Amino acid sequence: MSSTITIRLSRELKEKMRRHPRPWSEELRAYIEERVWTLELVEAIDEIEARAETRRVPDSTPLIREDRRR
Description:
By secondary structure, this protein is mainly α. It has one domain (11-69). It is built from three helices and no strands. The radius of gyration is 25 Å and the shape is rod-shaped.
């Protein structure tokens, strides 16, 4: 199922678009899909980083030295 959205453009911009015939709806749809995907990716990265913060070892040097002594 799909939905329709409406945007308001200035007359000047609409005239410029008319001078450059393109499949504007397809281009806008592709841009919106890419932008939403990017925002979701940033959101996922932020969530992963937040979870990783709680798992970080403050300083790994003592752990490495201990392993080398074994």
